[in-house]
Amino acid sequence: MSSTAPIGAFDSGMGGMTVVKELMQQLPNEQIIYYGDTARVPYGDKSKETILTYARQIMNFLISRGVKAIIVACNTVSAVALEDLKNEFDIPVIGVVKPGARAAAEATRNNRIGVIATRATINSGIYKEFLCRTNPDIEVFQQACPLFVPLVEEGWIDDEITDMIIHRYLDGLLKNGIDSLVLGCTHYPLLRDRIQKAAGNEITLVNPAFESSREFKYLLEENGLLNENAAPGAIAHKFFVSDGAARFAEFAARILQNYTVTPDSVTVHSFD
Questions:
Q1: From 195, 201, 208, 236, which residue has the greatest number of CB atoms within 10 Å?
Q2: How far apart are CA 264 and CA 148, in angstroms?
Q3: Which of these CATH numbers, 3.40.250.10, 3.30.930.10, 3.40.50.1860, 3.40.50.20, describes 7-95+210-268?
Q4: What predicted TM-score, i.e. pTM, was given to this entire model?
Q5: 163-179 per-position pLDDT tens digit
Q6: CATH number of 97-208
Q7: Which helix (DSSP H) or strand (DSSP E) does residue 203 occupy?
Q8: CA distance 115 to 104
């Protein structure tokens, strides 16, 4: 595989654009092909079998577009299906859970860490497993926040209803004395300011999107796949969704403020 080939990224919907933003900043020479499964979002309340089926379809699609490595920009898929994908596909693949857990373990001062994520990610127990493996003294307190994804997808980021729901989810979790909180879904960093306000400035928020993008760069370097020759300004990234190209373009343009995304630059590709 050539180092000039594009990299692939995918998520259950639009939240993975938080990972794409980090990839653009940390890997400016890489062309990104992104797939957002907007027609079937959210994944968090679906079975492992269904999530794995969706992930296989998207992996095959990205590979057909000639990508050299893939970052699973979805905590739910990373939690319940990543190992299966690594075993089934002969291409470097990384998820967002392990880098996020490692960063949280480094950030905590009192070994009491909170994790907010989708139901599927929480039920998998993978964050707790990684954190306790890193440091057996760590205590993990988890809370599923299933309404965060549709709120973000609807664009209700700065809304009093969103603030009420954040408090509904977090108030009990914060009573456990945590000093670090993992934003265990790629949609959640888009609510970062509202979550920080509800949690208080003494709580460190951990964004797996940043950590996983940094680790993805190391993965490319280790496999001799890092592109060091492209002119960053000339790179044209490609975006695919399973539905709602115009809505996705509007959302992506707000996230990628220094990169132009229009409805014409987003292609709809659905699976039978």
A1: 208
A2: 28
A3: 3.40.50.1860
A4: 0.91
A5: 999 999 999 999 999 99
A6: 3.40.50.1860
A7: none
A8: 9
